[in-house]
Amino acid sequence: MKQLLLFVFFANIIFSLSAQDLYIPRDVKAAYAKGTRSMDGKPGKNYWQNRARYNINITALPPNRNIKGEESIVYFNNSPDSIRNPSIKLFLNIHKAGAPRNFGAGKDYLTDGMQIEEVTVNGAPYVWKENSFSPTVQQMRLPKALPPHDSIKITFKWHFEISKQSNREGMIDSTSYFLAYFYPRIAVLDDYNVWDRMQFMDSHEFYSDFNDYTVTVNVPKNYIVWGTGTLQHPENLLQDEILKRYNSSFTTDQVIHVATKEELAAGKVTKQNQTNSWQFTARNIPDMSFGLSDHYLWDAGSVMVDDATKRRASVQAAYDQPSEDFKHVVRYGKHSLNWLSHHWPGIPYPYEKMTVFRGFADMEYPMMANNSSFKDTTFSRFVAEHEIAHTYMPFYMGINETRYGFMDEGWATTFELLIGTADVGKEMAEAMYKQFRVEGWIYHNSSLEDIAIVTPGDALTGPGFGNNEYGKAAIGYLAMKDLLGDEQFKKCLHAYMDRWHGKHPTPWDFFFTFNNVAGKNLNWFWNNWYFTTNYIDLALSDVKKTGAGYDLQITNIGGMVAPFNLLITYDDGSTEQKHQTPSVWEKDQSKTLVSVKTKKKIQSIKMDGGIWMDANPSNNEWKEKK
To answer: Span 538-623: which CATH code?
Structure first.
């Protein structure tokens, strides 16, 4: 027992020392010093995070664009410090004229933003004063500081005009709305970055606490509401035949047409009250979103996502009649949940349902996706699979997407290739992957493309920002998969997800978890891929005949430690492929020697990186001089 304890003690020292090989920003270093995070990648003994309980009531009466809302927030301070000045996120203020944003804004985009009418703190009226210089992030000053391990109740009453220009939220058509980011929310207070006061610029994404929600969406009769969470009392909302189909969809493998075009037109779907109140509940989730329409068709089915418990998850689709590809969406969604649950990441889908709503954003939300319609159904499936994969990162994992978007977009892009390979085969999946995820980075010579992936996303715009978060980060994860092998890679990934789901991991929690679980100091790889200005450019610089065969000198011009294949053709016409994982670069990242043992004479050698595309392939071939 004593020897075991000594081993554990010295192993922890080794991992702590190896962690120092990576750049760690000062705020994250302070978290390690406070014990809220641990150098072995686990949450520290002093880890904490705050949460809230939201009760929201929203009224939408299309075609009227004015949306009214009321909410009460019970906020729990689990931090060791008192809170006096909480930050409040008002994302829809991005629509205000003059709001700072990274995109232009036409007249259909602009509105007056969120208009706060009343605020109370613990039942007492509060004078709301809005700062016009930071419209999407406001700051309150509480009459009395909120002590540690205590709670406070804040209420808001507000209204806003839904934007005519639909993107992540807004009008899809005159009687179809997508409601997202529609409520005032308390910003994240975390253990390393303190208050999240990053402005929403309409290009970056989000960072949210895990909260409990009860949301009621009031709409006219004949309107259906689809949304995050569990629909309460559907028997009070749906007519008998529709209710029967809806309920059966949760237990069948078939695709059920819950509501048809004819039934919608005849008023045979919802109860014929003047107003119907659709209430949804969800626990321990980072956000809620809703789609509503009086003419969208409704399909549904379900799939088993957890073999051990026999738990099924619902898949639903809401779409207009012309969107022919959406007739396949429930099938695509069922396939996605099944594959993601059983293969990569190989963790059962954590929620009860997934709804894909026909919009324009190709954007993810908890249990929801707002997707465009495409004539190419293969591409429709590709988009659906990417957005559904986001369930795990960032929603299950609580990632700060604004600052470290590569921790969620990079993973969704990774899963996108893996499921795509199962769908259409390796050749087609990788061709699509290179076209959409790699070529824009590797063949673009701008210095913006060389910015380190770990650079905080809120400091970046332009193509370098996008490629850092998607393809560049993803092929880094896939290179690590190639290095460790599938079994050990999945073991490390599962450990990371087990440790940090429902929490707020940083990149260092991810890196150090992999080091810890793999039992290896992988910082040489993490540093090379995520902390440097490297890119992929390898050269087959020399080939020498030896007594045992050939020695191949590979030079790493771009610096990135990418895997590669050597395609060897012998003079007898036979061929051989030798795959090299990133491990060949561990000792020397500038050059490596690959020995080919053979008695045959080599006629030619071609180096091919596959999805790890080379910026300059002109120096990747060698031919025997005749």
So the answer is: 2.60.40
